[in-house]
Design goal:
This protein is an alpha/beta fold and 270 residues long. The protein has twelve helices and eight strands. Strands 2, 3, 4, 5, 7 and 8 form a six-stranded mixed β-sheet that branches. The protein starts with a strand and ends with a strand.
């Protein structure tokens, strides 16, 4: 079971925040520094920290985009790159690319340029953006596609394992056709007992469950599922922080993998 203690989690986060290189380099160093933690858990924690650094960068610099553009123009004269700027600003390279492009072009043009840097008239800037796209493991179109694909893969895996366990359920598509707005990934059509607890739904999270994310999920989704449907299971496929067990109390069952078929028992009513 991948449950990370507060002390170990803090060491991982401190390692990430104090790292001097790019996040794509940090991934390999994290695995060698914390060999007992599964790589998918480390990558997910790194991804969450990357998102936090991006938000922090924008909040600190959203009024300084013109100054950052000027800094870039001065640096390229000395063959300095956006990649080097990103390490100094401690943010994903694509965050700086996006800020520079937004200062130069319209939002519609920038959207296309981030998909295909060949659209950027300035060849040097185009080359910089290309380099950032392929060396940024935290932000950009490739990473967005990877995150979406991983999320979809785990939802497919969830349904497959649920069927193999003999569960009968409605998925999100079924529920939305019936007019539900906020829906869990699986709503059980037949109440099922999991280790002496009746469960009614299962939610898949293709990430590590840290306290901040879990609190947000509770407020935005999970509490409403509990209020409407009763107790359910949340699967954090990359593991979770030990403290989220205290936040959930008895309303949710938090797991890092799909339960064994033997842990389920269908309820029968006479």
């Amino acid at each position: 079971m991948v449950v990370i203690s507060e002390s170990v989690y803090d060491k991982i986060v401190n390692f990430i925040l104090n790292y001097k290189g790019l996040a794509i380099e940090c991934e390999a160093d994290l695995e060698s520094q914390f060999p007992d933690i599964p790589p998918n858990a480390l990558k997910s924690i790194l991804s969450k920290q990357g998102q936090n650094l991006t938000k922090s960068f924008y909040s600190r610099n959203h009024l300084k985009s013109n100054a950052i553009l000027k800094e870039y123009k001065e640096r390229v004269k000395d063959d300095k790159t956006i990649m080097e700027m990103s390490m100094e600003y401690k943010c994903p390279p694509m965050s700086i690319c996006r800020m520079i492009l937004n200062e130069l072009y319209s939002k519609t043009d920038v959207k296309e340029m981030l998909k295909d840097p060949n659209c950027i008239p300035d060849q040097l800037l185009s080359a910089n953006v290309f380099t950032c796209i392929f060396n940024d493991s935290q932000d950009g179109i490739i990473i967005d596609m990877v995150r979406y694909t991983v999320g979809e893969e785990y939802e497919v895996k969830l349904k497959q394992l649920a069927r193999e366990a003999g569960l009968i359920f409605y998925d999100e598509g079924d529920l939305r056709r019936d007019g539900f707005d906020k829906t869990p990934d699986l709503l059980l059509a037949v109440q099922t007992m999991y280790k002496n607890t009746i469960i009614n739904w299962i939610e898949s999270k293709a990430s590590f469950g840290d306290c901040e994310s879990h609190t947000r999920y509770l407020n935005d989704q999970l509490q409403s599922y509990y209020n409407r449907f009763g107790v359910g299971i949340v699967v954090y496929w990359a593991g979770f922080h030990e403290n989220i067990l205290n936040k959930s109390k008895t309303n949710l069952i938090i797991l890092d993998d799909f339960p064994s078929k033997d842990d389920f028992e269908k309820l029968t009513f006479q």
